[in-house]
Write a structure and sequence with these properties.
The protein is mainly alpha-helical. It has one domain. The protein is built from 9 helices and 2 strands. It starts with a helix and ends with a helix.
């Protein structure tokens, strides 16, 4: 069956957006289930869905967990000390990387900045996905940037970076 090129591209872009939400949902679920006190939030799929919003994610994980740590610090600590958690996270990252790789090969990006963005996400996640303990801080910084829409250049954004780039293609 013949599908016009632009329609084919839109189908692939929508698929990438769906896979991005799936990746984020799975990771958020892992984050919430990384600690017994946070796992009460992970039991409800609606909580995971709410945390897909970058502002809600940011507020939730910046909240203090105890007197010296935020919820994000607790999540990081639980992955730091548990290689099986890191392996599960690496699997989710690998699935998402395959989708990005497919998009990079199959799509003609309208602008260089979209292509550069996805290549950078791909390269950085691929480099740090296994999160060995000395690289885990870098991996979690990358994940914070993706999930909380934060960058060194622009600071915080109210838009999901991945979805914004997909929509601009």
């Amino acid at each position: 069956m013949y599908v016009p090129e632009r329609k084919r591209s839109l189908v692939l872009l929508n698929l990438l957006k769906d896979k991005s939400y799936g990746f984020k949902s799975e990771c958020i679920n892992q984050f919430l289930n990384s600690d017994s006190e946070l796992s009460v939030y992970g039991c409800d799929p609606d909580n995971v869905k709410k945390l897909l919003d970058v502002k809600t994610f940011r507020v939730f994980f910046k909240e203090p967990f105890d007197s010296s740590r935020s919820r994000w610090d607790v999540v990081f600590g639980s992955f730091y000390g548990d290689s099986s958690r890191r392996e599960q996270l690496a699997i989710e990252i690998s699935y998402f990387l395959k989708e990005i790789e497919f998009a990079l090969v199959k799509l003609d990006f309208d602008e260089d900045k979209e292509l550069i963005f996805f290549k950078n996400v791909y390269e950085n996640l691929n480099r740090y996905r296994y999160g060995v303990e000395d690289e885990l801080n870098t991996l979690f910084s990358l994940l914070w940037g993706l999930f909380a829409a934060w960058s060194w250049i622009d600071g915080y954004s109210d838009d999901d970076f991945v979805c914004k780039r997909i929509d601009s293609c």
